[in-house]
Amino acid sequence: RSLGPNAPISARVETDLPVLDENDDLAHALDMLRTHGPALAVMHQGGLVGLLSQEQLGRFLMLGGVPGR
């Protein structure tokens, strides 16, 4: 069974980290990392899908950022 990006996420989590979700853009992520610390919880439909650190986002931007933009 594939767990692609449209797979339902049933796990609900609570975190003390600032949360980035599908409604946030890259500028908001950068601002949150600058003001709230070293990592963000990345959520999709209320489920935790990963953590994003300042270092990871920096590497992503150095490699060209979002395709097509």
Automatic annotation (TrEMBL):
It holds the Pfam family CBS. This is CBS domain-containing protein. Residues 15-57 form the CBS domain. It comes from hydrothermal vent metagenome. SUPFAM superfamilies: CBS-domain pair.
